[in-house]
UniProtKB/TrEMBL annotation:
Protein's name in the database: Lysylphosphatidylglycerol synthetase family protein
GO cellular component: plasma membrane
Entry annotated with the keyword Cell membrane: yes
Membrane found in the keyword field: yes
Gene source species: Niveispirillum lacus
Cellular localization per UniProt: Cell membrane
InterPro entries: L-PG_synthase/AglD (IPR022791)
Domain of life: Bacteria
Keywords: Cell membrane, Membrane, Transmembrane, Transmembrane helix
Main location: membrane
Membrane-crossing residue ranges in chain numbering: 28-49, 69-88, 100-122, 142-169, 181-203, 223-245, 257-285, 305-324
Bilayer topology term: Multi-pass membrane protein
Amino acid sequence: MSLTPDPESPPSPAAMPAEGMSRRQKTLLGIGTILFLGVLLAVAVQHVMAEVNFGDVLAYLEALPLSKVVKAIALTALAFWLLTLYDLSALIYLKKKVPYCTTAFAAGCGYAISNNVGWAVISGAGVRLRAYGKAGLSAGDVAKVVVFSTTTFTLGLTFTGAVGMIVGPHPVSVLLKIPEVAVQAAGALMLLGLLAICVITAVTHKPVKIWRWSIQLPSWGGVVSQITISSAELVVTAGILWMLLPVNVDVPFVSFVALFCAALIVAIFSHVPGGLGVFESIILLGMADHDAASSILGALLAYRFIYYVLPLAIAGLSIAIWEIRHHTGRFGRAADRLRGRGP
């Protein structure tokens, strides 16, 4: 998805005092909404956490079978490979040729960082700028890759969550305390929205103008590809946590995927780094009727380490090695030139 400013558009509202006030008011409203939701969430979580015995949490972690841990790590590797396809599809759309090893490094490290830090558009851009810049991409190209990848994730999250809400609405119904039919209706509306997007991309081949930006939409096939890649990645990621859950928690996988997507959405909008605590709270609230809060929290802690901490450590090591090799090569070439043997 390519974004370019429209030269015929009116000046940016940032230059207008009245609009500037409106922007500040919107910012304050956003902060107030986040704080309000945070208070509501804290009250609800306090009720759930009253049922948690931290001794039982530690006991569950100690008793977690090694086979489950190995499978979870393998699924994490698969999930991160699917994440590299976000960037790969963006580069194909932008018609930029970058070696896959570079794409895998930039995307894998970028997502490992943004998953933990939050603010994916910003936090994951640094390593992409370094890696893709060496491959000949401009800062503008990298920004387009990030926007395209974020759009891919949003489309997949909407589709996966909608299907889960329609087929298995119970956990989301428990979370929101609304009838299951209302959850299914919301899921159906989400699917209709995605269908509308697909129709628009199928019949519209000219850039779409939104405010002062001209957006070149991908083809219908491109949108379907985005949804497929992101949905597959989300299903695999949800499968990591689902597999780590205690055996006495009998929740259908499709229903769990719906709750997983809801937890991701709340965690993202909370702006808490990595959704730490927020994501776990939503999962606990949605599974409150299973009477296994301690074991579920143990599974969540194992998931947090395997999917968040472990990839972050690997990314940090990979970036350090990459930087050392880059600087070593540069210093070696400089030394050769000083000796008169370099180019």
